[in-house]
Amino acid sequence: MEADRWAIGSKMKRREIEALRSQVSCAAVLEQARFAIDIKESTRRAVKFRRGGEIIIVTHDGRGWFDPLSDAKGDVFGLVEHLDHVGFLEGVERVADLVGFRTHETGVAACEPWRRI
Question: Is 2-106 assigned to CATH 3.40.50.300?
């Protein structure tokens, strides 16, 4: 995993990763992965998502998460790593794909704003 974190430096600058982290919530990743909100067991500070027997709780205004059935927890990149069983580099790329983020190498880093339809 540490090797993956170093490898990302050649594709994205740290500020681009931080911008991406601030623009994609854990809830968006879970909705994309077909998790549903458990309204009865959610609070404003902790939103519970379920998919079959899996449970993920989103905290910190959508910026953090944890799995109550294991020790897994983290940010949006860690969530993708956990759900998709991929490394950090692949996780960053998948999060970037959610919002159309372009890396510094491909031109100016840009992120299309999310639009509700």
Answer: no
Rounded Cα distance between 94 and 86, Å, is 10
Concatenated DSSP letters for 24-83?
Answer: --HHHHHHHTT-EE-GGG--SS-EEEEETTEEEEEEGGGTEEE-TTSS-EESHHHHHHHH
The neighbour count for residue 4, using CB atoms within 10 Å, is 15
Structure tokens at 53: 């027997």
Q: What global pTM score does this model have?
A: 0.76
Euclidean distance between the first and final Cα of the chain, in Å?
37
Supply the DSSP symbol for 85: T
Average confidence (pLDDT) per 10 residues, the chain, 117 residues: 48 82 94 96 96 97 96 96 94 89 51 48
